C-alpha cells in the first residue's frame, strides 16, 4: 500500500505553502462577534466601556475601530465585511450580532447568551463552517437581563438561554453558515436552515455586505484622501462594490432576493435626538422589523446592503441559500450545481487535510473534538485595529473626548498602533488579544499553520505592539498590566513544531524573536524585582483571584509580595532564552556567551527562591514542602501566605534537560558553566548537580532537586488536593475544609476551595481561580513532567494517584494527566461529555451532544464548562493533547505525521 500523505502533500497543505504568494489569507473570518462594549469604542470620561456603547446602541451606531457580525467574513484590512442577519418574525430587532450581559448585568461578570459552535475550518480559510441556533419564538432578551439581574449573589448559578425554554420541543432553527473560496478573492457563502421543530416555520435571512466606516472621523494630515466606498444595485440584479482604486467586487444571490441599502453611519436621531443621515446603519432593521419602506435608500445604493429572502422551512426539513462575493470581472455565475461543486471540493480537501493530520489518532470522537478545537482557533482570528494616540486625542470630525481620558486607561501606551489579523482568546467575551493567551494560541496553531504561529509571535514584539521600554502589551483593558512571560517557551515550541512539519529549522525566525525577548526580559529584571534580589512581584499574572489580595494593587498591609509564581516564571524564562541561544549557537558561536548569561540568571533566581534577601528564608516552606508567596511587611517581617494553589506548582515548569554532547557542541558554554558552578557552590547547591548526570549523561536544570520535586508531585497527584478526574485544580481541595485565613487590621482575608465560579471578586470582573481547572498551566505541567522524564528515565517512579499503590514513570504521569484533561470533552463510557454539565438538552439531544464548546475553565470536580464558552484560544491546547508527540531537537512536541 502507498504511504498515507503527510500534511504538506494535501491540496490544502499545498495552498498553505503558497498562502502569501497567492493571497489565500486575504479573506477570512476576521470580524469580531462583539465590537460594542470594548475599550476601543469607549470615549467616556471614566472608562465605562460597557455603558458607553451597549448592545442596544450597536445596531444604530457606526463603530470607530472595527466591526462585528454573526459568522463574519472579510478582507484582511476589514474594508469589506460580510455577515449573517436573521429575523424570526417575532424579535424586536434583527439578529445581527451575538447578545450577552455586560459586566454589571451578570452575577459572574460579562456573559454571552447565545448558542453557536465553530465546526470546521482550514488554515487558508478555503472552507469554513459554523452553526448558530435561533429560536422560533421571540429571543428572550428581557428575560435574560431581568433574571440574571435578580441573581445578585455570586454563589447563584447563571441564568442561561437553555434555562429559558427557548429550545423546548425543538422549536428552533439550526442555521449553518459555510464559506468556500473558489479562488483567493472569490468567496461562496451557503446558508442552510434546518427546522428542528414539529411545525413549519418562517425565517427572514439577510446576509449583509458593508464597508467599514472610515470616512466619518476626519483624516489626519498624513493620511491619504480616501474616496467614499459605494454599494449599488446593477442591471444584472447583483450588487457592485467599489472602494478607491481597489478592483470592484460583485455580491450576488443565486436565488431571488430583495436588496436593501443604507449607510453604515450612526442613527444620531435615535440615539442622541439630533439630525443625522436619512438612511443610517439600522435602516435595514427598521424596514424588516417595523415595515418602514421609507427607511432604506430608494436609490438602491449606500455603504451597507442586505440580500433579503424569506423562507418557510417545513417541520424536520431544511432549506439552503447561496450567495457569492467575488471580483466584478468574473462572469455573473449563478449556476447552483457549479457553486455546490466548489463547496464539495473544498470540504473534501478539508477532510483530506485533517485525515493526514489525524492519521495516528485512532478514536473517531477524538478526531471530531480535535477538528472542532482547531476550527475554533481558525474562526477566532480577528482584524484588530487600535491607534491609542488617536483614540486618546479624538478624531478631527468628532467632538473632543473628555480631557481626563488623556491621563486614564492606556495613556502611557501612545506608541501602540495596531491594524493586523490577530488570534483572539474569544471573539465575544475577549475580542481583544491578550499577550500570554496569544503565546498558547501560537503553539496550537503550529500544529496546522506554523507560518501563522511564527508571524503572531513576531507581531507581538514589533515596535507598534511592544512598549519602547520592552514591555509586551497585556490586554486592551490595561496594556500595562503584566502577563506571565511565556513567549520564549512558545517561540521554542513553535520552532520545533515547524521543524517537525517542514524538516527545516527556521533559525531566522528564532533569532528575530529572541532579540526582542531579550528586551522584554530586561524589562522584567528592571521593573518587577523591587529589591534587586532576583525575586519578582509580577502582579496578578493571569491568576486573577488566586490569592487573598489583588496582587496588582497596593497591598492593604503595605510592603511587597514576593511571588512564587512570578519568580518561577522568570526562572523558566531564563531557561527558555538559554535554550534558544544554544540553538542559535549551532550556527553562530557568539550566542554561547548569551546562553551563559541566561544560565547565570537562572541560577541566581533559583538561589533567591530559597534564600530571599540572603537571610535563609525563602519561598519554599520546609514544613509544608510547598512554595508560597511571601508577604514582606514594612517592618521587615516576612510572612508566608500558606495558600496551596497553582502558585506553588508553577516552579515545576522551570525545567530544561541538556543532552550529553553539550561539551562537544558548545564548548565555551560548557566551560563557563563548569567554572561558575565550581566557584559559586551557593548557586550550584540550588539545582540538580551539574556533575550528577542522568539517563544518557543528560544534565538537568530545574528549580527542584529530586526531593522537592517528589514533594510537589505528591501534593499535585493527591486527589484530595489538586488532582481532579479532569486535570489539576487551581486551588487545593483541602481548603474546602480548611480555608486559609489571614487577619489584618480588623479584617480577615481568606481563600477557600470553590470548584466553580468564585463567590468573591478580589481582582474584579469574573475572577474565578479558586478551584476550577484550566488548560494553560495543566499543559505546561504535562510538558514539565515529560521533560523531567527525559532526565530521570524509566526507573524513577512516583505513586499516581497518591495513596493508590500505583507507581508510574514521569512520562506515564504526563500521559495520565493528558488523559484526564481530554476526558473533559470526550464522550465517556456513559455517553456523556463532562464539559456539557448536567443539561439534558446538551448531553442527550443528537443536535447538541456532538457540538463541543471550549470553555475558559472547568468545574474542579465535575469538569463542567465554565466562563467564556468559546475560549478556544488556550483551551484549544486540547488539540495538542490529542495529538501523538515526536522527538524533535532535543525535546518532544505534538506533530503531524511524517509522509
UniProtKB/TrEMBL annotation:
Q: Name one GO molecular function term.
A: Glc3Man9GlcNAc2 oligosaccharide glucosidase activity
One Pfam family, short name = MGH1-like_GH
Q: Name one GO biological process term.
A: oligosaccharide metabolic process
Q: Which segments constitute the Mannosylglycerate hydrolase MGH1-like glycoside hydrolase domain? A: 430-531, 702-872
Q: Which InterPro entries match?
A: 6-hairpin_glycosidase_sf, 6hp_glycosidase-like_sf, Glycoside_hydrolase_63, MGH1-like_GH
Q: Could you identify this protein by its name?
A: Glucosidase
Q: Whose protein is this, by species?
A: Methylobacterium terricola
Amino acid at each position: 500500500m502507498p504511504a498515507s500523505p503527510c500534511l504538506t502533500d494535501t491540496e490544502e497543505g499545498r495552498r498553505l505553502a503558497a498562502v502569501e504568494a497567492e493571497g489565500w489569507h486575504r479573506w477570512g473570518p476576521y470580524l469580531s462577534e462583539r465590537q460594542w462594549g470594548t475599550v476601543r469604542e469607549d470615549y467616556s470620561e471614566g472608562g465605562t466601556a460597557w455603558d458607553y456603547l451597549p448592545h442596544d446602541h450597536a445596531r444604530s451606531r457606526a463603530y470607530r475601530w472595527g466591526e462585528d457580525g454573526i459568522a463574519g467574513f472579510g478582507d484582511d484590512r476589514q474594508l469589506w465585511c460580510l455577515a449573517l442577519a436573521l429575523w424570526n418574525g417575532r424579535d424586536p430587532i434583527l439578529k445581527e450580532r451575538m447578545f450577552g450581559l455586560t459586566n454589571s448585568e451578570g452575577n459572574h461578570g460579562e456573559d454571552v447568551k447565545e448558542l453557536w459552535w465553530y465546526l470546521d475550518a482550514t488554515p487558508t480559510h478555503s472552507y469554513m463552517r459554523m452553526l448558530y441556533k435561533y429560536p422560533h419564538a421571540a429571543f428572550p432578551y428581557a428575560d435574560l437581563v431581568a433574571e440574571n439581574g435578580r441573581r445578585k449573589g455570586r454563589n447563584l448559578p447563571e441564568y442561561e438561554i437553555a434555562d429559558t425554554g427557548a429550545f423546548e420541543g425543538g422549536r428552533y432553527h439550526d442555521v449553518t453558515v459555510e464559506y468556500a473560496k473558489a479562488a483567493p478573492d472569490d468567496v461562496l457563502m451557503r446558508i442552510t436552515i434546518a427546522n428542528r421543530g414539529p411545525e413549519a416555520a418562517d425565517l427572514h435571512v439577510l446576509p449583509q455586505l458593508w464597508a467599514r466606516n472610515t470616512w466619518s472621523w476626519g483624516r489626519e494630515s498624513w493620511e491619504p484622501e480616501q474616496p467614499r466606498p459605494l454599494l449599488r444595485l446593477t442591471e444584472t440584479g447583483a450588487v457592485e462594490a467599489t472602494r478607491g482604486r481597489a478592483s470592484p467586487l460583485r455580491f450576488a444571490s443565486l436565488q431571488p432576493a430583495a436588496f436593501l441599502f443604507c449607510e453604515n453611519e450612526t442613527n444620531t436621531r435615535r440615539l442622541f435626538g439630533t439630525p443625522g443621515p436619512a438612511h443610517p446603519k439600522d435602516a435595514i432593521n427598521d424596514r424588516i422589523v417595523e415595515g418602514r419602506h421609507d427607511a432604506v435608500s430608494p436609490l438602491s445604493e449606500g455603504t451597507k446592503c442586505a440580500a433579503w429572502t424569506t423562507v418557510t422551512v417545513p417541520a424536520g426539513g431544511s432549506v439552503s441559500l447561496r450567495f457569492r462575493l467575488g471580483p466584478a470581472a468574473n462572469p455573473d455565475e449563478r449556476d447552483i450545481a457549479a457553486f455546490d461543486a466548489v463547496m464539495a471540493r473544498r470540504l473534501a480537501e478539508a477532510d483530506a487535510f485533517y485525515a493526514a493530520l489525524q492519521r495516528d489518532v485512532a478514536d473517531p470522537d477524538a478526531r471530531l473534538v480535535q477538528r472542532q478545537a482547531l476550527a475554533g482557533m481558525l474562526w477566532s482570528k480577528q482584524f484588530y485595529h487600535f491607534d491609542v494616540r488617536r483614540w486618546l486625542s479624538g478624531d478631527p470630525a468628532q467632538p473632543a473626548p473628555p480631557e481626563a481620558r488623556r491621563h486614564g486607561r492606556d495613556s502611557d501606551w501612545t506608541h501602540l498602533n495596531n491594524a493586523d489579523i490577530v488570534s483572539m482568546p474569544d471573539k465575544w467575551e475577549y475580542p481583544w488579544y491578550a499577550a500570554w493567551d496569544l503565546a498558547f494560541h501560537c503553539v496550537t496553531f503550529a500544529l496546522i499553520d506554523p507560518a501563522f504561529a511564527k508571524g503572531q509571535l513576531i507581531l507581538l514584539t514589533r515596535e507598534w505592539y511592544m512598549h519602547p521600554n520592552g514591555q509586551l502589551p497585556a490586554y486592551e483593558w490595561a496594556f500595562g498590566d503584566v502577563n506571565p512571560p511565556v513567549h520564549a517557551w512558545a517561540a521554542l515550541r513553535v520552532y520545533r513544531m515547524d521543524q517537525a512539519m517542514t524538516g527545516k529549522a527556521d533559525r531566522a525566525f528564532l533569532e528575530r524573536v529572541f532579540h526582542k525577548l531579550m528586551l522584554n526580559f530586561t524589562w522584567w529584571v528592571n521593573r518587577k524585582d523591587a529589591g534587586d534580589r532576583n525575586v519578582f512581584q509580577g502582579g496578578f499574572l493571569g491568576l486573577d483571584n488566586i490569592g487573598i489580595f489583588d496582587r496588582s494593587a497596593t497591598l492593604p498591609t503595605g510592603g511587597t509580595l514576593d511571588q512564587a509564581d512570578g519568580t518561577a516564571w522568570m526562572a523558566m524564562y531564563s531557561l527558555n532564552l538559554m535554550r534558544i541561544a544554544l540553538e542559535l549557537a549551532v550556527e553562530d558561536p557568539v550566542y554561547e556567551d548569551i546562553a551563559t548569561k541566561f544560565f547565570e540568571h537562572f541560577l541566581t533566581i533559583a538561589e533567591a527562591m530559597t534564600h530571599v534577601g540572603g537571610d535563609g528564608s525563602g519561598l519554599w516552606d520546609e514544613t509544608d514542602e510547598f512554595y508560597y508567596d511571601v508577604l514582606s511587611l514594612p517592618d521587615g517581617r516576612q510572612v508566608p501566605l500558606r495558600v496551596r494553589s497553582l502558585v506553588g506548582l508553577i516552579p515545576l515548569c522551570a525545567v530544561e534537560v541538556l543532552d550529553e554532547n553539550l561539551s562537544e557542541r558548545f564548548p565555551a558554554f560548557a566551560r563557563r558553566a563548569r567554572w561558575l558552578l565550581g566557584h559559586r557552590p551557593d548557586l550550584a547547591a540550588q539545582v540538580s548537580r551539574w556533575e550528577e548526570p542522568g539517563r544518557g549523561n543528560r544534565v538537568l536544570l530545574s528549580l527542584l532537586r529530586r526531593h522537592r520535586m517528589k514533594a510537589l508531585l505528591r501534593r499535585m497527584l493527591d486527589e484530595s488536593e489538586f488532582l481532579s478526574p479532569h486535570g489539576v485544580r487551581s486551588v487545593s481541595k483541602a481548603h474546602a475544609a480548611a480555608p486559609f485565613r489571614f487577619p489584618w487590621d480588623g479584617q480577615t482575608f481568606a481563600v477557600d476551595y470553590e470548584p466553580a465560579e468564585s463567590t468573591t471578586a478580589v481582582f474584579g470582573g469574573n475572577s474565578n481561580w479558586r478551584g476550577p481547572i484550566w488548560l494553560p498551566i495543566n499543559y505546561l505541567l504535562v510538558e514539565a513532567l515529560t521533560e523531567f522524564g527525559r532526565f530521570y528515565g524509566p526507573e524513577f517512579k512516583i505513586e499516581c494517584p497518591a495513596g493508590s499503590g500505583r507507581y508510574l514513570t514521569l512520562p506515564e504521569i504526563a500521559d495520565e494527566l493528558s488523559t484526564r484533561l481530554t476526558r473533559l470533552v470526550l464522550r465517556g463510557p456513559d455517553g456523556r461529555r463532562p464539559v456539557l454539565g448536567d443539561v439534558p438538552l446538551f448531553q442527550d439531544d443528537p443536535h447538541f451532544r456532538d457540538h463541543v464548546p471550549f470553555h475558559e475553565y472547568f468545574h474542579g470536580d465535575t469538569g463542567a464548562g465554565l466562563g467564556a464558552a468559546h475560549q478556544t484560544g488556550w483551551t484549544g491546547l486540547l488539540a495538542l493533547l490529542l495529538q501523538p508527540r515526536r522527538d524533535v531537537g532535543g525535546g518532544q512536541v505534538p506533530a503531524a505525521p511524517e509522509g
